[in-house]
Amino acid sequence: MEVPDVDSLWRDGSRASQVYFISGGHKPVNLHQWGPGVRDVYALHYIIHGQGTLETDGQYFRLGAGESFIIFPQKEIYYYPDPADPWEYVWMEFSGRDAERFIELTQLSVQHPALPAAPECLEPLFHLAWNAGTSPCEVLRADARLRLLLSYYMEFFPSEKQEEARDYVWLAITYIEQNYWKSSLTVAEIVQAVNLERSYLFRRFKEATGESVSAYIAACRIRRACELLKSSRLSIQSVAYSVGYNDPLYFSRVFRKATSHTPSAYVMLYQKQAER
């Protein structure tokens, strides 16, 4: 049996995190400089102390302790320390199809690749990912730690796009699809999870989906029940419990109202269609 290597196992688009850790490190105080040149990855730097300069697109960014800068893929840059007070910094390199989207949720951009001092020290978050080895579990942990680091940059330096990206209807739908199996799921719980005024959410939800929140919950449960009835050999009782109904008889009534078939009749109908 051929065993896939770690890289193909964890970097494959169908399985991998869409943003993944590549490498990281610590540069102690010295006169190291880099560039001018380009990289093919993102490289986020955090300055521990000292000073230095980043040059890109004819702009000069003078940076010091607590501040950050990022290298964008294929963007020419040149950075170097202050001879009188050379910087010490940590960095993390990453890539992935979602990397650009994550960075867009911060104030970092090609035009503004530097950030002011963070409200708290971020150095420990960089160190977290460096202990990654090559085993699948270690690679996965490194990716998770990268996401943790980026989440702090999103929190401390949020872009205007963050609020634009906050689609409350999408959040409500996602919450429903992740929790439909709970018999205790209520509209009030969804409102609290989305953190939006109840009537405003209801209005936006209706406009976007054409259904009320409660109707969407019921429809989500029935859709999943249909999938289970077609793809598994679960009993009607097990299907009912799996989609949030503790009473199989009540589930059967709801299912029949929604599909015009009892669960048993639905299974038979599907089997006949599959045999044709």
UniProtKB/TrEMBL annotation:
Residues spanning the signal sequence: none
Transmembrane segments: none
Domain of life, source organism: Bacteria
HTH araC/xylS-type domain sequence ranges: 170-269
InterPro entries reported in the protein's UniProt record: AraC-bd (IPR003313), Homeodomain-like_sf (IPR009057), HTH-like (IPR037923), HTH_AraC (IPR018060), HTH_AraC-typ_CS (IPR018062)
GO terms for MF: DNA-binding transcription factor activity; sequence-specific DNA binding
Keywords linked to the UniProt accession: DNA-binding, Transcription, Transcription regulation
PANTHER family membership: ARAC-FAMILY TRANSCRIPTIONAL REGULATOR (PTHR43280), MMSAB OPERON REGULATORY PROTEIN (PTHR43280:SF30)
Name of the protein this chain belongs to: AraC family transcriptional regulator
Organism listed in the record: Paenibacillus xylanilyticus
